[in-house]
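Inverse folding, one chain.
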């Protein structure tokens, strides 16, 4: 915590990544790893925001293209990275871990911000997963 003149401001660390002209923030506690976006396999019947999938340690990880969900401008994924997050979900009274990945145009970095950052820039991973979950790929 950092003290300000008016009181205390909470600080949190985020993984910052870029898609188009917009920066997104992921709370660091959700980030499992950052990998290259290859090999990438297209899935013809997947929703538009699924850029493809990559095999990663025995799992199939969907690569989410946030430019298809939010107004970000046209991204360039020539040197893209995939930020893999781990989400605990309840499935038939059993808690399992699922992985999803967010595509970043550039190498993401970690930064600490105060609580005054815009909430719309922060991705709530659990809520995102529930909203955009694909049952079958």
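Residues assigned per position:
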């Amino acid at each position: 915590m950092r003290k300000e003149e008016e009181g205390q401001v909470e600080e949190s660390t985020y993984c910052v990544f870029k898609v188009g002209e917009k920066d997104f923030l992921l709370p660091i506690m959700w980030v499992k790893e950052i990998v290259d976006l290859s090999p990438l396999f297209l899935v013809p019947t997947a929703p538009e925001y699924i850029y493809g999938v990559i095999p990663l340690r025995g799992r199939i990880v969907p690569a989410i293209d946030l430019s298809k969900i939010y107004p970000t401008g046209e991204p360039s994924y020539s040197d893209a990275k995939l930020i893999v997050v781990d989400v605990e979900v309840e499935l038939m009274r059993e808690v399992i871990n699922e992985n999803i990945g967010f595509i970043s145009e550039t190498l993401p970095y970690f930064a600490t911000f105060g609580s005054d950052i815009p909430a719309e820039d922060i991705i709530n991973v659990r809520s995102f997963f529930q909203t955009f979950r694909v049952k079958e790929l």
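Residues 10-132 form a domain with the OB fold (Dihydrolipoamide Acetyltransferase, E2P) fold (CATH 2.40.50.180). The longest strand covers residues 81-91.
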